Amino acid sequence: MNPRDLLDQLLHPYESFTALRTEFGPVSYNERGKFWEVFGYDDVLELASDYETFSSDGSPFAEYPEEMTKGQSVLTTDPPRHRQLRSLVSQAFTPRAIASMAPRIAEITNDLLDQVTRQGKMDVIADFSYPLPVIVIAEMLGVPSEDRARFKHWSDQMVVSEYEDLSRDNVEEYNKRVRTIMRQTLDELYDYFRQVLAERRLRPQHDLVSALLAAQIEGESLFEQGILAFCSLLLVAGNITTTNLIGNALLCFDEHPEVMEQLHARPELIPQAIEEVLRYRPPALLVGRYATRPVEIHGCKISTGESIIGWLASANFDPAQFPDPQRFDIGRAPNRHLGFGHGIHFCLGAPLARLETKIALSILLERFEHIRRERLQPIETIRSVFIMGPRHLPVTFQVRA
Ligand code: HEM
Fold this sequence. Notes:
Bound molecules: protoporphyrin IX containing FE
Keywords: Heme, Iron, Metal-binding, Monooxygenase, Oxidoreductase
Strand content: 5-15%
Number of helices: 17
Oligomer: single chain
Largest sheet: 5 strands, mixed
């Protein structure tokens, strides 16, 4: 996909992803990236569900260092290893464990809003939707949330990256440059967490890092590299996506003032509005797999080892699954969007992301009204092929009486 289209995707997701599906779908080979792409709901669902045919243990993106993409974390393993790793960490993410975090999430939300209340305006991203999840995940992991400028830098390097500004004309050169940036980012991240691990080994605390150190898979402790990979995954996957879910939600509500009004009047509808945002403007655009055997999709013969991208964002507009897919409809039922993926790799952090976003939006709408996007400057999108969301979202508001 041409990175120049990213703004269009954010502003006109239905048109952009429908055009993509109509032009290339249902399956096509991307010559430049050397991977296959699938666009329809059923095909993306199949790609995410059939882990025996479509493996996660390797990346479709040739430019990434192998240790990021193979066999290290839940995201990049297949069963049985995936099951073992996921069971180790899923304790921390059960709906009950997550629900117990609600008061703290509300407190952080209120603190962040306190800081902008008097000025009557804020950048939703910088002032609100970025710090909230980063503070939450930092507290879960047990690392100082004051380090969040560094977390942001690392997260950006991993997915959003300045490398998007590099020329893609020379694929070799581009891949080399991306690999160098990734290598440097991983080294910094791992050095950071290695130090945290060393401290927790000496003085365990009630946090996720200490729990991971104590955890065992069939009598064996998690190897250090596995813990480092998981902590880094959480820091990156847990942040940028939730930031963009909150940002994308406000963008949707700004475009549909009647929805904003409805949610002010009936905040109990916020959870279903969030589900529709996950369909209409999903922060995570795609999942990647590779074929473990020769497989045919709609007559296209995919060979063993070839990579396949499943476009979640395109599947979410498939009219065979969603009637009137172009309508942003918070009453949509059923709404089986693929915003959190599907199958064994279904987002581990989904209950946390949903809770954070629900609390963030509920308190925001409870405290402020007439929330309007400032239209002084054109909207800018983050530059990533994986993640969709606004880079900045300046809004004005009034404090509710
Ligand atoms: C997996 C999206 C928030 C941790 C995934 C996948 C998607 C996704 C699409 C599936 C990837 C695949 O199948 O290859 C999102 C979105 C989020 C979000 C849209 C926010 C709106 C979070 C949070 C955390 C998290 C808050 C943790 C704190 C993970 C992990 C996996 C994952 C660990 C890998 C699960 C596995 O492979 O078994 N996420 N995510 N995510 N997500 Fe999220």
